[in-house]
Amino acid sequence: MTGAVADGRPPDTDGTRRLLAVLAVILLVVAFVPPLSTEARRLEYAQAVQFALFAIAVPALLVLGAPWRFLRLAAPSAGARPGSAASRAAGPVDRLQAARRRHPEFVRSLAVLALDVGVIVAWRVPAAVDALARHPWLVVAEAASLVACGVALWLECVASPPLTPRLAHPRRAALAAFAMWAVWAAAYVLGLAHASWYRAYLHVPGRGVSVWADQQLTTGVLWLAAICAFIPVIFWNLMSWLRTDDDPDNEMHRLVREGRRRSWAAAGAGHRPEPDR
């Protein structure tokens, strides 16, 4: 706790992050084991829950949990002096952060967004979902790709010490909004379908969940998951932007004020009396 206060962080920040990281691991295990793993091969909405855990919940909690130092992927001390033992122990996450500082281009963040959206769409097409229902071992590939790309996207939107986003707050909010809309679009198209997209899921009339109910529940799961994950990030980044001095209007006003002060100083210097000789 003393170290957290010395670093300027709230005392419970590290504990909260550890809890989020542990929760991410728990949800990952829940997605792989029964009853969710078996129901995901029988019901579309259960498969959507499994997908939402892989694509949204687990990556978000991992990034917010920031387990990089615990996993020995980053130096144990954030404020290590150059040349010290902690500085020499810099891990791959520290090197990634240094690279992100050297290359803060918006294009790189857009590429991460495009990759994540592409993987999300690829795992929601009928052929992929039917293959997951018929071949359970494909869930490992689904989880690996969705979690990896999801973590990359969330690192562009929120801080995960020692990693910080390379973009300003408004652009972080825009990335989160586009990712949310991609999930919404996939859910919306499925909700409007008049027949089941996924042939591997059999619905017997009068027994169990109907096709219509299964599709509506699937749509609701994806919408709710996207809302709960991305809406707070969007509003947090927008509020942080409004609270900081990064507003371009504030910068413009500051430059105008400095220009006026220089002109007044120059005008005052031009009317100074000559010193006596």
Biggest sheet character: none
Instruction: Extract low-pLDDT stretches.
Output: 1-12, 245-253, 271-277
- Integer average pLDDT: 81
C-alpha Rg, in Å? 25 Å
What features would you describe in this structure?
The longest helix has 33 residues, at 211-243. Helix 4 (44-65) packs across helix 9 (138-155). The chain is mainly α and 277 residues long. The protein has one domain. It is built from twelve helices and no strands.
From the structure above, extract its key features.
mainly alpha; 277 residues; disordered N terminus; globular; disordered C terminus; 0% strand; single chain
Q: Secondary structure elements and their pairing?
A:
Elements: H1 2-6, H2 13-32, H3 36-39, H4 44-65, H5 85-88, H6 92-102, H7 106-124, H8 126-134, H9 138-155, H10 169-192, H11 211-243, H12 248-270
Helix pairs in contact: 2-4, 4-9, 4-11, 7-9, 7-10, 10-11
